């Protein structure tokens, strides 16, 4: 029940935009920008990206210790149906579709670059997933963070700032 309450709190913060700003999170999270794949977001400081690129797609993965992973997957070219992005998110995270809950979309202003965006969370009570699925000027994106519920509770403003920091171009 506590995990569901935490997810509800996250949804309200994302909807209302009441969170630490990226500048407030700068001490432990820094901006990462990928020109090739056309996105930027905050990532835990001190982590190095593992980058995979292929014809028209790519992924970037950051691991911050054992508890937190931040990842972005881009498909450059024709936009994929949002259901297909969600299916891909389920496959890549290993979190079953029955655990995914659609949240209110984060407030997006024009500079965020998305033409369409959805936000999702999932939790089994121990682990937590926050995912942003959407279409940008260059293609489709599945951007997510996985962490433990305990880590999320300790650093909730940073995770909310992460979600609000995502931009595509």
What's the structural blueprint in terms of helices and strands?
Blueprint: H1 2-16, E1 29-34, E2 39-44, E3 50-54, E4 57-64, E5 68-76, H2 82-93, E6 100-103, E7 116-123, E8 127-135, E9 139-148, H3 149-154, H4 156-165, E10 167-168
What does this structure look like?
The protein is of the alpha+beta class and 169 residues long. The chain has a single domain (2-168), classed as Mog1/PsbP, alpha/beta/alpha sandwich (Protein Transport Mog1p, Chain A, 3-Layer(aba) Sandwich). Helices cover 25% and strands 40% of the residues. It is built from four helices and ten strands, in the order αβββββαββββααβ. A seven-stranded antiparallel β-sheet has the order 3-4-5-9-8-7-6, with helices on both faces. It has a three-stranded antiparallel β-sheet with strand order 1-2-10. A hairpin with a 3-residue loop joins strand 8 and strand 9 (139-148). The longest helix is centred in the N-terminal third of the chain and has 15 residues, at 2-16. The N and C termini lie far apart (38 Å).
End-to-end gap: 38 Å
Instruction: Note the beta-strand portion.
Output: 35-45%
The radius of gyration computed from the alpha-carbon positions, rounded to a whole number of angstroms, is 15 Å
Number of strands: 10
| Main sheet specs | 7 strands, antiparallel
User: Looking at this structure, what is the CATH superfamily?
Assistant: Mog1/PsbP, alpha/beta/alpha sandwich
- Determine the structural class based on helices, strands and strand pairing: alpha+beta
Overall 3D form: globular
Q: Order the strands across the largest sheet as they lie in space.
A: 3-4-5-9-8-7-6
What is the CATH C level class, in words? Alpha Beta
Note poorly predicted spans.
1-26
**What is the number of independent domains?**
1
CATH architectural group: 3-Layer(aba) Sandwich
* Number of helical regions: 4
Topology as H/E string?
HEEEEEHEEEEHHE
Compute the average pLDDT: 80
What level of helicity do the residues show?
25-40%
| CATH level 3 topology | Protein Transport Mog1p, Chain A
